[in-house]
Amino acid sequence: MKKKSEEALNKARESHLVVAALIATVTFAAAFTLPGGYKSDQGTAVLAKKAAFIVFVISNAISMVLSITAVFIHFLLAFYQGSLEGTTGADETTMNLFELATLLTMIGMGTMIIAFITGTYTVLEPKDIVESLEDVGSALSSYDPFLSPYKGDKNEEKENNEERNGEEL
């Protein structure tokens, strides 16, 4: 039983490590490809004075720090699992570190979403965002996922019935 729980923890740890590393990679890239670009003469951000841009930078940095910390904790977990095996409290330490890394990764995801939203808001005018949301809303409201696959079948069935009725006359 203990062997299965260790295997499950190792699989979860591996996938959490991948997620944390991806968040770190994406946030690192976003830090250098700033929304709005750079002023060519000074090398500073074009949108540096906008409040949404400042929120983008802060949330992106928080996300990066949290995800890199989670990656570091996952490396500690690998070290602790090998060196603390068989000692008292090893399982509890491992679980506490795993839970901390998971929490940091989840918060990092949330702050990455905030960075995405504020980055998008920074480069688009609020009017464009509202129009875009209206377009998405109207497209979604016109699509009926429950009926779409069956519309063709009902039309074919109706045509077949009309042909049969015409043959009977």
From TrEMBL:
Membrane topology type: Multi-pass membrane protein
Transmembrane segments: 17-38, 50-80, 100-124
Keywords noted in UniProt: ANK repeat, Membrane, Repeat, Transmembrane, Transmembrane helix
Name the record gives this protein: PGG domain-containing protein
Compartments, record wording: Membrane
Record region (Disordered): 142-169
Chief site of localization: membrane
InterPro entries, sorted: PGG_dom (IPR026961)
Ranges of compositional bias, category Basic and acidic residues: 151-169
GO annotations of cellular component type: plasma membrane
Domain PGG span(s) in chain numbering: 7-123
Keyword Kinase: no
